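Fig. S4 source data, part A: sequence.
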Amino acid sequence: MGDFWIWNYELRTIGALNSKTTRRAYAGALVRNEAGFGCLHPWPELGDPTLQDCLDDLAGGHESALVRRTLDCIRADGRAREENCSLFEGLQVPLSHATLPLLNEVVLSEAMERGFTYVKVKGGEGGGWDLRRIRLMMPMYPGLKWRIDFNENGDVNELLEELSFWSEVEKAAIDFLEDPVPYFAGGWERLAKESGLTMALDRNLENASSDSEVQVLKPAVQEMKAGPRVVVTSYMDHPLGQAFAAWEAARAGVKEICGLQTHRLFEPNVFIEALGNASPEFKIPEGTGLGFDDLLDALPWTKLCS
């Protein structure tokens, strides 16, 4: 593919992002090859290689999952830029839920004011306390649907004990529990059966069976796949990577509410501002390919040496 050029960036969070990390600063790199651009944004906490390892793989021609998807992005973006058109032409990006790392009345009210009808929140260790908090808030937000991501930190017995007090109406407000426990831990099927709730699988997605009612797919590391319920989310990465996830969801015709609004989890920069305020509707970046033409051209690119 010729020479690669990179621009290292750092995103700083406004608050904690999930139970797997306490970091506030997240490093990544935009990659340029000929006319195309892509994004490398690893999460070592989730088992990814380090950024330097990814860049070494890219320079050495080794296609790890992150590198392979970055190259896919570069190729698609480059073709569209050469044709002087947007990748989003003729496509409809699905709506998004609000991703809320904090759970309080302020952030929930703000999300509803912005038009969100679905929210994704984090569940902590065990999970029972977080479910109790959500249950207490439900009467204040009767039209809201909840997606609760436990990052595999839930406890089956604790979750089932708490849910035993819930009415069917209250349970109906939960769209799904995401990774409530490790998929192969033995408690997954029991939790699904006894709670009556929908389970969503993010990790180990390549081994998902038909029992996984919702598949949470991240185009930054996974190729698009068909399924009865596929929810596409960003990798909480650079806005360029966010745009790639939105395009993949749009071209696959995904109809589910997705998770493509994560840029406002970070302190503002010019790319984040280009995506506008967080809302259910994805704001397509102006320009060719995945957009951001002038911003990308203005970056001080450095040649990646092998």
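Fig. S4 source data, part B ends here. Residues 65-82 form the longest helix (18 residues).
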